[in-house]
Design goal:
The chain is built from 16 helices and 17 strands. The protein is an alpha/beta fold. The protein folds into 3 domains: 128 residues, NAD(P)-binding Rossmann-like Domain (Rossmann fold), CATH 3.40.50; 143 residues, Succinyl-CoA synthetase domains (Rossmann fold); 152 residues, Rossmann fold (3-Layer(aba) Sandwich), CATH 3.40.50. The strands form 3 sheets. It has a 6-stranded parallel sheet with strand order 3-2-1-4-5-6, with helices on both faces. It has a 6-stranded mixed sheet with strand order 7-9-8-10-11-12, sandwiched between helices. It has a 5-stranded parallel sheet with strand order 14-13-15-16-17, sandwiched between helices. The radius of gyration is 25 Å and the shape is elongated. The two termini are 30 Å apart.
């Protein structure tokens, strides 16, 4: 059975729709009624008083139309009966928001097994114990956190899978503030049916998704996970943040979702073999994801172009730590640059355009270097410099025509933020520190090298 109706349903039923603002069932219904979803919405509650102007049905079986997706937000003990009704109604895709299953112990596990038997072979289920799904295009939004408390990211090409709803919702809010777009978000919780492997397979074929990011606590089918990630990584980058890498964290994972976390060294080794890019923290997870808007480098030779010498030094240190190469410009390139740049400009690598840099200097240096044998550029721009025309952003954007990865570092406050947003909206990733920019480039290089061998 397809997963497509989780993201593109023509009709949705909210089972447990509440009359009380702030309650889970009310907020989910409000998302579909007022959030831009264009399909049909049916509210289900034994109390048939209208909610948000919507007619309310006492049971899903009373809805006179076909339903593509049911979102279940009722007490755990009533979920089995609700599932039976959904099966009778022939609803093929279900999201169980409710908690109180295997994550609480043996009693909850028995209840989850009972639910599993009811839907086996008859419907696909995400959950239980989830916040569910957010699709930035179709506006399917089962997240019960109100918009004023958790913003939704804009449309983008990054898909985000999270076993944890709490981690997922917090990161979504951060992504929205950071103006980083996503294609789809899925919290899959206890993975009674649909798990990380199913979602990776689905996203591999999703035209809206260019990069897949995952917060993974553990996996129950390691062999299948390895096989699918290796297969999909040949088509799209998969970036993984692994939780439960310490003994204490592993115990927390078991309590949280009843998954086994496994050895951190084993996971890290496996990720390298199957082409998954491992992030050390959630900041890196999306630093790396942003970098994949760029073409893949065809080697390790990097040029750093800066108007702040200290920033160039920090970038150079990180280049060494990442195992990248920072060769001096070839003799003929130096001769060319000397013709057009002041004699006090440093033409080593990093190339320091000095504190009185202009956009013209950036244009000359970038154009010459990207035409040469460098495989990537780290561009550090201190917008605060009074001689630098902010239109240097147009110069950097123009350099995309050379088909090489360009990653920027721009540090500062509101003035810098304004031009950072222009760069990022034009597909140039920007980072607040040189180290983060270089580490993101390192991820691009490692993935490119893995692909060449795969």
């Amino acid at each position: 059975m397809s997963l497509d109706n989780f993201f593109n349903p023509k009709s949705v039923a909210i089972i447990g729709a509440s009359h009380t603002p702030g309650k889970v069932g009310y907020e989910i219904l409000k998302n579909f009624v007022k959030g831009g979803y264009s399909g049909k919405v049916f509210a289900i509650n034994p109390d048939t008083t209208p909610i948000l102007g919507q007619k309310v049905y006492p049971s899903i079986k009373d809805v006179p139309e076909k339903i593509d997706l049911a979102v279940i937000a009722v007490p755990a003990k009533t979920v089995p009966q609700i599932l039976k009704e959904c099966v009778e109604k022939k609803v093929k895709n279900l999201v169980i928001i409710s908690s109180g299953f295997s994550e609480i112990g043996s009693k909850g596990k028995k209840l989850e097994e009972k639910c599993k038997k009811i839907v086996a072979g008859k419907a696909r289920v995400i959950g239980p114990n989830v916040i569910g799904i957010y699709d930035s295009t179709t506006k399917v939004d089962t997240i019960f956190l109100p918009l004023e408390r958790m913003a939704r990211p804009k449309e983008g090409q990054i898909a985000f899978i999270s076993q944890s709803g709490a981690v997922g919702s917090t990161i979504l809010d951060w992504l929205a503030e950071a103006q980083i777009g996503i294609s789809k978000f899925i919290s899959y919780g206890n993975a009674m049916d649909v798990n990380e492997c199913d979602l990776i397979e689905y996203l591999a074929n999703d035209p809206k998704t260019k990069v897949i990011t995952i917060f993974l606590e553990g996996t129950r089918d390691g062999k299948r996970f390895m096989k699918i990630v290796k297969k999909v990584s040949r088509r799209k980058p998969i970036i993984v943040l692994k939780g439960g890498k310490t003994d204490i964290g592993a115990r927390a994972v078991l309590t949280h979702t009843s998954s086994m976390a496994g050895s951190s060294k084993i996971y890290s080794s496996v990720f390298k073999q199957i082409g998954a890019i491992e992030a050390a923290n959630w900041e890196e997870l999306f630093d790396f994801a942003k970098a994949f808007t760029q073409p893949l480098p065809k080697g390790r030779k990097v040029v750093i172009i800066t108007n702040g010498g200290g920033f160039g030094v920090l970038a150079a240190d990180e280049v060494a730590r990442e195992g990248l190469q920072l060769p001096e410009p070839p003799h003929n390139l130096k001769i060319f640059l000397k013709k057009f740049l002041p004699e006090y400009v440093s033409l080593n690598n990093p190339i320091d355009l000095m504190g009185d840099a202009t956009k013209e200097r950036y244009q000359i240096a970038l154009q010459a270097c990207l035409k040469s044998k460098y495989h990537a550029a780290i561009v550090i721009v201190l917008f605060q410099v009074p001689t630098l025309d902010p239109k240097v952003v147009d110069v950097i954007i123009e350099m995309k025509k050379y088909g090489k990865p360009i990653l920027c570092c721009a540090s500062g406050g509101k003035f810098t933020s304004k031009y950072t947003k222009i760069l990022e909206s034009n597909g140039i990733p920007v980072y607040p520190t040189p180290e983060r920019a270089v580490r993101a480039l390192g991820a691009l290089v490692r993935y490119s090298e893995w692909l060449a061998k795969a």
